[in-house]
Amino acid sequence: MADPAKPSGSTREAEPGVISTDVPARLDRLPWSRWHWRIVIGLGTVWILDGLEVTIVGNMAGRLAQHGSGISISTAQVTTVAAAVYVAGACSGALFFGWLTDRLGRKKLFMLTLAVYLAATAVTSLSWTAWFFFLCRFFTGFGIGGEYAAINSAIDELIPARVRGRIDLVINGSFWVGAAFGAFASIALLNTSLFATAVGWRLAFGIGVVLGLVILLVRRHVPESPRWLFTHGRADEAEQIVAEAERTVERQTGAPLPPVEEAPIRIRAREPLGFVAIARTVVSRYPRRTALGFALFVGQAFLYNAVTFGYATILTTYFAVPEGDTGYYFAVIAVGNFLGPLLLGHLFDSLGRKPMIAGTYIGSGVLLFATAALFQHGSLSATTLTGCWTAVLFLASAGASSAYLTVSEIFPLETRALCIAFFYAVGTAVGGISGPLLFNGLVSSGKVSDTTLAFCIGAGLMTVAGLVEAAIGVKAERRSLESLAAPLSAVRTEA
């Protein structure tokens, strides 16, 4: 029997212009190894930076507005305009870089998007006036938005199908590791006995730069997606990367690789598609999946914007929590958010996508309705409200992470990055731009009924999204990406 680690002849020209390859099947059969951990660390840890960004800026809004901060800006401008500008940049960056990712490759773009983020974050620390701060926040979001498209597509195309769900959820959930770190860091950086008013917030942005540089060094060693390569006529490069991965994994695990079980696929390379062609293909070929993606992204975006951009305001307005102590409460919520994907992630691969996605969306919505009722009746303190939100977000975080997993799995390879970008941009624009503007007014009004309404809006949309998943969700667990949505360049084989 031929050694399964030897890939000779597995990718070949079946007929003029048509390539027959089993590269996807060979990637999916690889046992977990340090090779996969390098991918996870190099690509997945960027969500820590996003969580750090959002949390630090939210917790430092009051400090930025203080006299002597070195920047002329108000608290309202930070929590509304700057938050909305950041999200607008993320939406724009997702669409722009998502389009480039499908055209130019995953690796070029996940290096470029991180470089954009690093430059914008470093310059933000030099801000002296509101307009410059807004500009920097836009380009910081522009880089982060591009990361969502480039990273999620690369990860899902490199990680074996049997564990794709749990790995994707944990990676997206690591946003909250950064949020917890940002919450604790803001406590120290807001302490004027340690850092001057004009210094602490500038150092906060420096933390992101340092972490980003470390990630950039690791990311240099992450390979291009072989799946992207063979659909763009670069079969030899795809073969080399997979062959090297097989040798590395076999050496690291000390055991022969399992045989390749799935049949090869036949690909005819084609020119990259434009926005219009992709939109037409996705909507006409997969209308139910398109509706599903919209529901999941809009639901989670509204729920998270009901609290992420305004939780510190809720604590200070309704419970008289000192401004410098809000980070402790947010850190508890952040831990709950990360534990959700970490502890529930394996169930998305075993019990399945539909029951777990529907369950986490609907469950978090129901818990948030209950929290809203308790808050309306004055039955909560700062501590018990934080406990309720931690329970809500334990479920919601797993559900929200699965939204990115879903749209990455259920559309063709040639459209994957742009589809992620499109659904992220639309869902986040609806919930992420309007969310901070709407919810900031509700949670800071001082009226309990307004904040209750904010909670109910997030809970309602999350519940509706869960019902949509239950009705038309896709059973994607442990299935290859190609079986879920054949590449547009796939050549049908006549029986």
User: What Rg, in angstroms, do the CA atoms define?
Assistant: 23 Å
> Which residue ranges are poorly predicted, with pLDDT under 50 across at least 5 consecutive positions?
1-9
The main sheet comes to: 3 strands, antiparallel
Number of helices: 21
Structural class: mainly alpha
Quantity of strands, as a count? 3
Beta fraction: under 5%
Which outline best applies? globular
Oligomer: single chain
Distance between the termini: 28 Å
Overall average residue pLDDT: 85
Strand order of the largest sheet: 1-2-3
- The helical percent reads over 70%
| Element order: H for helix, E for strand | EEHHHHHHHHHHHHEHHHHHHHHH
Characteristic key phrases:
495 residues, 21 helices, mainly alpha, 72% helix
Tell me about this structure.
This protein has 495 residues and is an all-alpha fold. Helices cover 72% and strands 3% of the residues. The protein has 21 helices and 3 strands. A 3-stranded antiparallel sheet has the order 1-2-3, covered by helices on one side. Helix 2 packs antiparallel against helix 10 and helix 19 runs antiparallel to helix 20. The longest helix is centred in the N-terminal third of the chain and has 30 residues, at 75-104. It is globular and about 70 Å long. The protein starts with 10 loop residues before the first strand and ends in an 11-residue tail after the last helix. Mean pLDDT is 85; it is low at 1-9.
